[in-house]
Amino acid sequence: MKKxxxxxxxxxxxxxxxxxxxxxxxGMGFExxxxxxxxxxxxxxxxxxxxxxxxxxxxxxSGTVNxxxxxxxxRKDYRALQNQVEHYQIIQRDLDSLRAExxxxxxxxxxxxxxxxxxxxxxxxxxDPGTLFHGMTVDKGMSSGVAVDMPxxxxxxxxxxxxxxxxxxxxxxxxxxxxxxxxxxxxxRFSAGRYEGLVGGDGKKxxxxxMRYVKKRAKEEIRYGDLVVTSGLRSIYPASIPIGRVVxxxxxxxxxxxxxxxxxxxxxxxxxxxxxxxQEPNQ
Length: 283
Known about the structure:
By secondary structure, the protein is of the alpha+beta class. The chain has helices spanning 4-30, 39-114; strands at 117-127, 136-138, 151-156, 159-169, 174-178, 185-190, 196-201, 209-215, 227-230, 242-250, 257-264, 273-281. The strands form two sheets. Strands 1-2-5-4-3-12 form a six-stranded antiparallel β-barrel. The termini are far apart.
């Protein structure tokens, strides 16, 4: 009994022989005039038909092999193009990031040129993650003229705001105590009503500030959204630096003053650049 592969091979050979005979017979049919009188022509015609048949089959298989090779090359080219596209996407993201950084630096430079105080631009390079102390480190120190108790402001999203004050400095770095820390207190007033108070934080970097010791009679004049600024009185901070805006008003019966909740003007979670003020006016 023949194996399946041998049977298939024999079957294919039989089909090929049958096709060859058919082509020969067709050729003989067209040779009606010399079919019996010219046997040499008959043999030549049959041989030519068989050669044509085998040439066609060979061309078919050759074309198939070439197509497979071309498909393999196309796949390689496709992978190479995919890698190029991914590379260009990375370059585009880096370019967008650099463009955004350049825009931020341009804004900082423009604000620096408008400041009326001598100042030292600095970049935040570290944040203290402690729960009792929230200092931040900047990349400028005593060699740049930075000293303890210098006020620190920032420019963010088109507006300026109070950051805190310098509490220590080395030759090349300085530590800043932010306004939201428990130990930081700022003499402040309302920009519109001019009522004064003392602003301090709740110790949370993303939390609110609280203005205390505001007289209760100011309740009727204070509105949500009112701007609170530094008062400049008996303070290291210059006057009129924005601190934040009113988001809550409390009037506890057991206290003689109001407690005003303030949203900081600066988003400390996104703080990158600061300006350390030297207090001397620009000349």
